[in-house]
Specification:
Radius of gyration of chain C: 20 Å
Strand content of chain B: 5-15%
Chains: A alpha/beta (260), B alpha/beta (291), C mainly alpha (329)
Largest interface: B-C, 31 and 37 residues
Order of helices and strands of chain C: HHHHHHHHHHHHHHH
Number of helices of chain B: 13
Largest sheet of chain C: none
Radius of gyration of chain B: 21 Å
Number of strands of chain C: 0
Strand order of the largest sheet of chain B: 3-2-1-4-5
Largest sheet of chain B: 5 strands, parallel
CATH architecture of the largest domain in chain B: 3-Layer(aba) Sandwich
Oligomer: heterotrimer
Structural class of chain B: alpha/beta
CATH class of the largest domain in chain B: Alpha Beta
Distance between the termini of chain B: 34 Å
Helix content of chain B: 25-40%
Distance between the termini of chain C: 34 Å
Structural class of chain C: mainly alpha
Number of domains of chain B: 2
């Protein structure tokens, strides 16, 4: 039940076309990275797939069309880390992570043993054990990002969607998180993340989808997608590209002169 | 009662500078009398000679406030504004002591003779005021007739004698107000052979009496004022529907004494005495349920 | 502090204040007579005072307080804003307007249920307008301004309706509607409002989970299974029903829903679902305490309940504005 298929997805927001006729299929087996310039439509794509913005086209989870899946059932299938990291109340870290269990809780019962187990696992995976009793409003940006990621992990769904999950993290935690996501995807979960960090994407994503102006420009392995040509056309930059024993290394180095 | 003070409108006009004061002739009775106050309106209507009274206030024709509302229609209406009254060129202006000070002061400055009557607070006061009105209007004989009428009507109700028991009457008006001693209403209640709860509790004037205390005092009679609800309801009368009040009434109705009989002191105030005495007549001492 | 301990403590407080309310009043009955009047009914005067005057007053005090506390906690959770409160947002003022229209046109005299129904209608209108003006993630400033606008408009229209009434007393009754009072409420008022208040509670109480999830934002909450439309409908209906019915019989009592969740957050934490029940209990305590104070401070006069809650609440509101001023957008 980890298959997500999108066909001819188009989204207009505020009268502007954001996504045009996008078709993609997602499966377990490697972190799938969504990359592209600002305004390419990455966040909108992720929201559309979750039914958070109105869209045209077909979105199907394991063959079942999105409109036919109710919110509660969908919450058992996918979890979502939004780009907006606002938290309204000074909750404790543990309470925030526990929120991830919301779809699994029955109306009156509290957290069960299975819930606690998932929460502990999530805390361990994101390395926030020493923060568990802190109030979230007192944490740094990076610590907060890890806590919110833990919330998503605690939801324990077959499909996990994250919008810029490593943006605020230090290099050590960035790598740790991507390793975790990679392990989860190998264990059978479909992981889709959008990110700007090209070097990380090159190293840890088994598949990349390059979006530009609402359409898919490239879809394949990092080697296929992160080419001089694509970078020139989409980002307007020159890259330094090398295949090393640690894998593909890509670094944007200079802007290309604007050409017609 | 207190409605008097609210009844007279404030002075707002500007007065032309050219006027002369009206000459006074102390010996001859006044020929153009204008009354600005509900109580002086009615006393004047009762006492004046035909053609002597020119104008009464607008309240005199309101049937809920005035006993003589029909007669009042024969006279010109004024709203207590110095401007209107000036135009009528009266040689005597009658006002209450709560009539707008500005209006009264203005009229005096303009040279008019203004005689003010305070609210009557007892039957003796009423008699004195009737006589004073008679003197002012040169109608002393007529005034004596009215005093006799008052006394005659009062004697129709027997004086409260040495009967050992007087029914306890609670006066209950809008917003839980009651009347204590030192008021005309209190005198009326006493004359009718009842005891006023407000007086028993040591209250004076018009004052709020909490519903709880009324209930605990277990009055034999609850006297309600006029309910100004014919046109529209208000919260002021909510207590009249309260289950606790109903229980105290024990199935009987509240005794209604129309405000118009005791707002102003006049011969017709005896009517209020009669109504109360009639309401009290069938009562007998009952087992009080006070602790 | 243990959650259970807090609940028990607050419940005890409510019981004690309920008793205090029953034993406070101008009639000066001693405890023995009061108890006898309340339960045994031997002494008729005491029975009337206790059962027909004091009991409905205490019941309404507790239920209205619970309503205001609960709806304040729900509104703060739903709007993700610590300054939300049915009074601040204009819900109470609009309910007053509905009630005034019902009473002063004579509608409620003809049809008793018109009173709570119109009051609830006024409340619904206010909550919907707030929702529309404030949008998804409402800035504090936007919300407060919307509330000010609604309160002003509702207050002006209430004043107008009262001044236009031919009844000479109507114009002065604006004080009751704007400040609230429990004086001389009878069991009739209890039966008229209690079912609706309870209904509102039943609609609001299960919202705890959704409110918790909403702490992370509307998108995250939806991704965790919260149906936003349903949550909005329940919040609107529950608040309007309970606050509307409460206002219909007691006028607009302010600030209770604002103060109570704030006092409780340091004790039970900020999780919205944990605040709901304690807020109801604390709200009941607050209103009962204010109602007792009103009778102790000015026993012969009819001091309005809202005066006391405003004396405490308005400075508290000011303190909150100062504390949160950096987040005002």
């Amino acid at each position: 039940m980890t298959r997500l298929s999108v066909q001819n997805l188009s989204v207009d927001l505020g009268g502007q076309p954001i996504l045009r006729d996008v078709s993609l299929d997602f499966e377990a087996g490697g972190v799938i990275g969504l990359i592209g310039p600002n305004g390419a439509g990455k966040s909108t794509f992720l929201k559309a797939v979750l039914g958070l913005v109105p869209s045209r086209g077909k979105i199907a989870y394991g063959g079942k069309l999105l409109p036919e899946i109710d919110r509660h059932a969908l919450a058992h299938l996918t979890s979502y880390l939004p780009q907006d990291r606002e938290i309204a109340w000074p909750l404790s870290v543990e309470n925030v992570v526990a929120l991830g269990r919301t779809p699994h809780l029955s109306a009156l019962a509290g957290l069960g043993s299975e819930d606690q187990a998932e929460i502990e696992r999530a805390i361990a995976l994101t390395d926030i054990a020493d923060l568990r009793n802190r109030t979230i409003s007192t944490l740094s940006g990076g610590e907060r990002a890890r806590v919110l990621m833990a919330r998503v992990l605690a939801q324990a769904t077959p499909i996990l969607i994250a919008d810029e999950p490593v943006a605020a993290l230090d290099p050590g935690h960035q790598i740790a998180l991507l390793e975790t996501l990679d392990a989860l995807s190998s264990a059978g979960r479909t992981i889709i993340v959008s990110l700007h960090e090209i070097s990380l994407a090159a190293r840890w994503c088994r598949r990349l989808v390059l979006l530009d102006k609402g359409s898919v420009v490239a879809d394949g392995t990092p080697e296929d997608v992160l080419t001089h040509d694509h970078f020139a056309k989409v980002y307007g930059v020159r890259i330094h590209r090398a295949v090393t024993e640690d894998g593909l290394l890509v670094q944007p180095v200079a802007r290309l002169p604007a050409e017609k | 009662m207190t409605r008097l003070s609210a009844a007279i409108a404030a002075l707002i006009g500007t007065i032309a500078c050219l006027f002369t004061s009206v000459p006074l002739r102390a010996d001859a009775p006044p020929r153009r009398v204008v009354s600005m106050n509900l109580c002086t309106d009615q006393l004047a209507m009762l006492t004046a000679a035909p053609g002597q009274l020119q104008s009464v206030s607008y309240l005199a024709s309101d049937p809920q406030s005035s006993v003589l509302s029909d007669e009042a229609r024969r006279f010109a209406v004024n709203h207590g504004l110095a401007e209107e009254i000036f135009m009528m060129r009266p040689d005597l202006v009658l006002a209450g002591t709560f009539t707008s000070r500005a209006s009264v002061a203005m009229l005096k400055r303009l040279g008019f003779r203004v005689e003010q009557f305070p609210p009557a607070y007892s039957f003796d006061e009423i008699r004195a005021q009737i006589r004073r009105m008679g003197d002012l209007l040169g109608r002393a004989e007529r005034a004596e007739e009215l005093v006799e009428e008052l006394d005659r009507r009062l004697t129709a109700t027997p004086e409260p004698g040495e009967t050992p028991w007087r029914p306890l009457a609670a006066l209950h008006f809008a917003n839980s107000y009651t009347v204590g001693s030192g008021t005309l209403s209190s005198e009326v209640v006493a004359r009718a052979g009842l005891e006023n709860l407000g007086s028993r509790l040591g209250l004076t004037g018009t004052i709020r009496l909490p519903l709880e205390i009324l209930v605990v005092s277990t009055p034999d009679l609850i006297v309600g004022g006029t309910r100004y609800e014919s046109s529209a309801p208000a919260l002021a009368y909510q207590t009249f529907e309260h289950p606790a009040l109903r229980a105290v009434l024990q199935g009987r109705a509240m005794t209604a004494v129309p405000d118009k009989y005791w707002v102003c002191g006049a011969p017709f105030t005896a009517e209020a005495v009669r109504i109360l005495a009639d309401a009290a007549a069938p009562l007998s001492p009952r087992k009080s349920f006070a602790p | 502090m243990s959650y259970r301990l807090v609940i028990v403590g607050l419940a005890l407080l409510v019981v004690m204040l309920f008793a205090a309310s029953l034993f406070t009043g101008p009639a000066g009955l001693d405890i023995a007579t009061s108890v006898e009047g309340l339960f045994l009914g031997g002494n008729e005067a005491a029975r009337l005072v206790m059962q027909e005057i004091r009991l409905p007053r205490a019941i309404l005090g507790a239920m209205i307080g619970a309503t205001l506390g609960l709806s304040g906690a729900v509104l703060q959770g739903y709007l993700r804003n610590p300054l939300a409160d049915p009074g601040v947002l204009g819900v109470s003022a609009s309910a007053s307007l509905g009630a005034v229209i019902a009473i002063y046109t004579g509608l409620s005299a003809a049809f008793a249920l018109a009173l709570p129904v119109l009051a609830m209608g006024g409340a619904v209108a206010a909550v919907l307008v707030i929702q529309f003006l404030a949008g998804g993630r409402a800035g504090t400033l936007t919300l407060i301004l919307a509330g000010v606008a609604i309160t002003s408009l509702a207050g002006a229209m209430t004043s107008l309706a009262l001044n236009l009434s031919p009844n000479p007393f109507a114009a002065m009754e604006i004080l009751f509607w704007m400040l609230g009072s429990l004086t001389d409420r009878s069991m009739v008022h209890v039966w008229l409002s209690a079912p609706f208040m309870v209904l509102g509670w039943m609609v609001l109480a299960p919202l705890g989970r959704a409110l918790d999830a909403l702490s992370l934002g509307a998108d995250a909450a939806q991704s965790m299974g919260v149906r936003l439309n349903r949550t909005q409908t329940l919040t609107v209906l529950g608040t309007a029903t309970s606050v509307g019915a409460a206002t219909a019989v007691a006028g607009a009592i302010g600030f209770v829903g604002l103060i109570v969740p704030h006092l409780l957050r340091p004790v039970v934490g900020s999780k919205p679902s944990r605040l709901l029940f304690p807020s109801a209990l604390a709200g009941a305590s607050l209103v009962l305490a204010a109602d007792v104070a009103v009778r102790l401070i000015a026993p012969e006069r009819d001091l309005k309940l809202g005066v006391l809650t405003a004396i405490v609440g308005a400075p508290f509101f000011l303190y909150l504005v100062i504390r949160y001023r950096r987040t005002l957008t």
